[in-house]
Design goal:
267 residues; alpha+beta; ten-stranded antiparallel beta sheet
Length: 267
């Protein structure tokens, strides 16, 4: 039984890694297809985060605004009968886009706490600015811009890998803030229950998507861990218990969970 279970988990991990590679390759092809329109209007696709998924955020290269809402927001997830979940707060993702990683403003020696007020309950996270300063800085910046507000968590995995993935305002797994930043804190990285880590489409492609680990998960050390859940792990486990839409172990959660608001504060 043990050998069969280990093999099943190994196959599940290999499947997700293949998905990541395919979607990263699709992203590269999409960038190559972009053309200059009318000799003056260029459409640029920048990679953003997406665990096991490529990501893109298109904007007009001649648009001088650094926070114009160019990402196409998706409607809030439908209410489902998962116990403990309710209708999300009214509103839509703002889909803002930026051309570069935000300037560093976090204090790597300080402690920061993020609170995710979801339609299924609150989750609190102790952020690790010492080991992942750029990641925490980006997360704090985006939450301050209300970028995560009204964004649904678009992916739940319940076989082999146990995570809830959030942070894409388009709800497709291919959206991001328009900028990328480098990986951090990968040496010896593990992903036990309670870990919060960045999703990506390959090395150095972090953006806005992140995942919350609700059960011990084995992954290669390729995803920047930047926080630990200090409250609300039961909320995530309840969402996972509601299953995936259409059955199976990978897809949109039946809970239709939405980030009503996300706030980051210096402790």
């Amino acid at each position: 039984m043990g050998t069969t279970e280990q093999r099943r988990r190994q196959l599940a991990r290999e499947k997700y890694e293949r998905q990541m590679q395919r979607r990263a390759e699709a992203q590269k092809k999409a960038r190559r297809r972009n053309v200059i329109i009318g000799g003056s209007l260029a459409v640029v696709v920048l990679a953003a985060g997406g665990a096991w998924a490529g990501a893109g955020g298109a904007f007009d290269s001649e648009d001088k605004s650094k926070n114009s809402p160019q990402a196409a927001p998706t409607p809030s997830a439908a209410v489902t009968p998962v116990k403990g979940c309710s209708a999300p707060a009214a509103g839509q993702p703002n889909g803002k886009q930026w051309k570069a990683e935000p300037a560093m403003t976090v204090d790597a020696k300080a402690q920061y706490t993020a609170t995710l007020d979801t339609s299924c309950g609150k989750v609190t996270i102790e952020l690790d600015a010492a080991k992942a300063p750029h990641t925490v800085n980006s997360f704090a910046f985006l939450s301050g811009e209300k970028y995560f507000d009204h964004v649904k968590c678009h992916r739940l995995t319940t076989e082999g890998i146990y995570v809830l993935q959030c942070g894409d305002p388009t709800g497709t797994g291919s959206g991001g803030p328009g900028y990328q930043f480098a990986d951090e804190n990968l040496t010896g990285a593990t992903y036990p229950a309670g870990t919060v880590a960045m999703a990506n489409a390959g090395a150095g492609t972090n953006g806005s998507q992140f995942f919350l680990v609700y059960k011990d998960t084995q992954l290669p050390p390729n995803y920047t861990p930047f926080g630990k859940i200090t409250g609300g792990l039961d909320v995530l486990q309840n969402i996972a218990g509601g299953g995936v839409q259409g059955g199976g172990g990978d897809g949109a959660p039946n809970a239709g969970v939405v980030l009503n608001s996300v706030a980051t504060v210096k402790s």
